[in-house]
Design goal:
CATH superfamily: CofD-like domains
Oligomer: single chain
Largest sheet: 7 strands, parallel
Order of helices and strands: EHEEEHHHHEEEHEHEHHEEEHHEHEH
Strand order of the largest sheet: 5-2-1-9-10-13-14
Number of helices: 13
Strand content: 15-25%
């Protein structure tokens, strides 16, 4: 079976580790592919930085900083301090020395004309990840945030301002010229199950779906599409997704996020949606909108709970497939 996950960032990394653990425990040989958001990518000190990809890469490799939730473990930041002193990097965006090795390698390959998909392959070959990562697109589509103080790159709004500046909207540069990567299109067409990770709906899942042709690829996919809510009992599990949702007029609730994605039968992307037990009241209303919802424990606290959430998502997908 081929399991495809769409998402990015820490929430996606934790979820994919749960999928991998579930596959390991089941003793199956299921393939896991991840279509990764590239809208968070940007240029710093002449280096191409890919936060969502690297969070997945490091977490799956077991070399991530579990305390911070991002970056490499046992990290130092001497080079980053020097870059800030030279004025070539913002002092609010620290890059670890080990992390810089990844960015330098990525940038060197890109400047040699290597595609981002091939860069993903080369970086992923270093460790046994148990999953294959694919960029949503090989083109640069940096996310820009419109605020009362002007347009900011998403990273400045998110990291420097901690999403405190009210956002008026989000857009991706050059999105009209982008297209899904060949790897993303291939695994979506071959998938047996497609899972939307509990990632930020606006800036992690949203840029993936905004790539021209991506929604159509999901619409053509024979596999059921099941999402996992990153909102529990009216609060975001991690990060500042509530600020993003408010900017696009979506309530911070599991039900509202599912309705934002929409049912595939009505031109959206979801066949099913997992909500936490605290949000079981959303199940019936979502079913009325054509989204098969199920309430289960969703907190990804450890390997056991994460594997169970993956199991529940796959079980819902299987039930949806059997009813078709």
């Amino acid at each position: 079976m081929r399991i495809v996950v769409i998402g990015g960032g820490v929430g996606c990394a934790r979820f994919v580790r749960g999928v991998r653990e579930h596959v390991r425990r089941s003793g199956s040989s299921d393939a896991i592919d991840v279509v990764v958001n590239t809208g968070d990518d940007w240029w710093v000190s002449g280096l191409r930085i890919s936060p969502d990809h690297d969070s997945l890469l490091y977490a799956l490799a077991g070399v991530n900083d579990a305390e911070r939730g991002w970056g490499r473990a046992d990290e130092t930041e001497r080079v980053s301090s020097e870059l800030a002193a030279w004025g070539t990097a913002p002092d609010w965006f620290a890059l670890g020395d080990l992390d810089l090795g990844t960015h330098i390698a990525r940038t060197a390959w890109l400047r040699d004309g290597v595609s981002l998909s091939e860069v993903y392959r080369r970086l992923g070959a270093r460790w046994p990840l148990g999953a294959t990562l694919h960029p949503a697109t090989d083109q640069e589509i940096d996310t820009i945030v419109e605020t009362s103080e002007g347009s900011l790159h998403f990273q400045e709004w998110w990291v420097r301002h901690r999403a405190a500046l009210p956002a008026r909207g989000f857009a991706q540069r050059r999105i009209a010229e982008a297209r899904p990567s060949e790897g993303a299109l291939r695994v979506l067409s071959e998938a047996d199950v497609i899972l939307l990770a509990p990632s930020n709906p606006v800036v992690s899942i949203g840029p993936v779906l905004a790539v021209p042709g991506m929604r159509e690829a999901l619409g053509r996919a024979a596999a059921p599409v099941v999402g996992v809510s990153g909102v529990i009992d009216g609060g975001v599990v991690r990060g500042m997704a509530d600020a993003c949702l408010a900017a696009i007029g979506v309530e911070t609730s599991a039900r509202a996020v599912a309705e934002h994605y929409g049912s595939r039968d009505a031109g959206g992307v979801l066949d099913g949606w997992l909500v936490d037990e605290a949000d079981r009241d959303a199940v019936a209303p979502l079913a009325a909108r054509g989204i098969a919802a199920r309430a289960v424990p969703l907190w990804l606290r450890d390997a056991d709970s994460s594997a169970q959430v993956a199991h529940d998502a796959l079980a819902l997908a299987r039930d949806i497939g059997e009813r078709r």
